Amino acid sequence: MEKIILDCDPGHDDAIAILLAAGNPTIDLLGITTVAGNQTIEKVTRNALAVCAAYGIEVPVARGAERPLVIPQMVADFVHGETGLDGPDLPPATFELDRRHAVDFIIDTVMSHEPKTVNLVPTGPFTNIALAIRKEPRIVERVKSVTVMGGAHTRGNITPGAEFNIYVDPEAAEAVFRADWDVTMVGLDLTHQALATSELQDRVRAVGGPISKFVLDLWAFIGSTYESNWEFAAPPVHDACCVAALIDPAVFTVAKADVRVELHGEWTKGMTVVNFQDAPGMHHDAGSAAKQTDFRTNVAMTLEWPRFADQIVDALTYLTEK
Ligand code: PIR
Ligand code: CA
Predict the structure, then answer these.
(1) What is the CATH number of the domain that holds 63?
(2) Residue among 230, 232, 204 nearest 218 (CA)
(3) Interval 107-153: pLDDT, tens
(4) Which ligand 1 atom minimizes the distance to the CA of 157?
């Protein structure tokens, strides 16, 4: 049983991460916090509440940061549409927001549970997590693990080198990677393997009912975006991969690396520079003794797609029969 706080910006794949977390009996979803990313904070918070209300997911939802730490806000309306969750028809959100700010919700929840029992799962820009570390530094040693969707070591999706969640708030991302806690980076290299193929869509269709329809409508919208923009045959389900690893760590392999976020590059701003521990000749920094390497981030490498697909189908079946 893993306790998690899902810090998200729904977002098509964030919505599926919510369903996977709520629909797996080994996950204890303590709460959902929202952050501006795919769309404005108003829209992504509305989406989180609407998904929870529509499918009976009774967990606290706390609204978080409306802009990045340092740089101006940007949204991904070119991917997720005007609402941030274009495609399905969602009834208006009838659930009420938690009264706390997301940052306070995260701090209160981590500090009120036993040490090393709460896992953080950021699947939007890391603004709330960075603010929480600043406001209550003791969460760093108290949290069990941090499994982030963000970064890449082969290619970006918003610039050639940078992945969106990191690019939107690189200073926050650097703070999260530098903090002394157990971080797993689930980047594009992994999530581009987590495709909602026609095989998976057929299995979801066979589940039947409103949740199955919701997920298929999400994939229809985002699938056509990925096809026309990037020639993907099927859309990636990025954010659900983080939850999948907390359900079953064997869903992907990891490699140890030192991860730095490029904050100043002309062509590389927001890129994660991933120095793998086992990369030949890469152990010693050329030049500066100040640049100590620290190979402690687990970087997700190879997905076991069938396990991932089973988890999705099982969770949607569970929620549908509940
Ligand atoms: C996905 C996202 C943003 C931009 C694109 N092109 C695709 C969102 C997803 O919700 C995921 O968390 C992350 N950001 C992937 O970059
Ligand atoms: Ca997201």
Answers:
(1) 3.90.245.10
(2) 204
(3) 999 999 999 999 999 999 999 999 999 999 999 999 999 999 999 99
(4) 6
